[in-house]
Write a structure and sequence with these properties.
Shape: elongated
Oligomer: single chain
Length: 305
């Protein structure tokens, strides 16, 4: 059925004979229930998914843990919020509900990321802070995930000093966290003004990230921005070329390429690089706030309307 989710109607048919038994033993057979609900959602029937799952969230922790990411990843903002709020009332506070509380924080974080929703992000941030200061014991991976999510929220909110501190905590626990390496490098560049030591550390972090994931275009883009901050413009343009080769259609590349060319004194080439980038309002909204600001600043500097 999991394989057949691309054909949700077939998955529903395959799972149907097992649903009665799964409902009688939801903690043990929760995977069947979550798959069935996912198939209903993919088949355009979220009401059927809700009727299946909601009654069982009252009695099964495993169903709650499975239903939270399902809602956050597949439903609309409004429907997912309703699911998450409904499930929350049955989550046990304290160490016994540890896994559930982690899933709850992750669900709000995922919803905030999917819909660029500040209210969901605020819920996630409050939950993560509460968990980290509760005295509850988390294993290493759980704590890294909590801190990584918190750092991402702080980064999105422009709380750069807090995000730098949180990403440093992540890397102290695991120096091979690629996202933490990349995002900390970006944050060090955003310091006003970036210090020579900060730029140097950003370069080390960016290279470490690429060593771990050389096929990631985002990491090559970050390295290009670091190299431009170092004044290494030919190397920066070469790194941008690698990012473009790995992801030819990314709308950010013209912005970052133009930034590098402008910093190197090649104003005409920078104008040409940015001239072909004409995002509409919807495409602009998909960019992060920082990326939109960089684009508009470049427009003003280059005299492009």
């Amino acid at each position: 059925a999991d394989i057949n989710l691309q054909d949700p109607a077939s998955a529903i048919s395959q799972l149907a004979p097992y649903l009665a038994q799964a409902k009688k033993n939801p903690d043990q057979l929760h995977q069947i229930l979550i798959l069935a609900a996912q198939a209903d959602i993919l088949n355009g029937d979220p009401v059927a998914a809700r009727h299946l799952i909601w009654p069982l969230t009252k009695i099964s922790a495993n169903v709650r843990v499975g239903a939270l990411p399902l809602a956050a990843q597949t439903l609309s903002l409004s429907a997912a919020s309703q699911w998450i709020n409904a499930i929350t009332q049955y989550i046990t506070p304290g160490p016994k509900g540890n896994i559930e509380q982690l899933a709850l924080a992750q669900a709000w974080w995922t919803l905030g990321q999917r819909f660029n929703n500040s209210a969901a992000m605020a819920r996630a941030q409050a939950l993560i802070h509460s968990l980290l200061t509760s005295g509850q014991k988390f294993n290493k991976d759980q704590k890294i995930n909590l801190l990584s999510d918190l750092a991402t929220i702080e980064l999105i909110n422009g709380e750069n000093a807090k995000a730098i501190n949180t990403y440093n905590q992540v890397l102290a626990m695991d120096p091979k966290q690629t996202i933490a390496l990349n995002n900390l490098a970006i944050l060090l560049l955003r310091q006003s003004p970036p210090s020579p030591a900060g730029i140097e550390r950003a370069a080390i972090l960016a290279h470490q990230a690429i060593d771990l994931a050389p096929q990631s275009p985002t990491l090559w883009d970050t390295l290009a921005r670091v190299q431009a901050a170092q004044g290494k413009y030919p190397q920066a343009l070469a790194s941008m070329a690698k990012a473009k080769a790995l992801d030819p259609n990314n709308p950010l590349w013209p912005v970052d390429t133009a930034s590098i060319l402008l910093a190197s004194g090649n104003t005409a080439q920078a104008r040409a690089a940015l001239a072909g980038f004409r995002p509409d309002a919807a495409q602009l909204q998909e960019l992060s706030v920082n990326s939109r600001n960089r684009y508009r600043q470049l427009q003003a500097k280059l005299g492009i309307q």
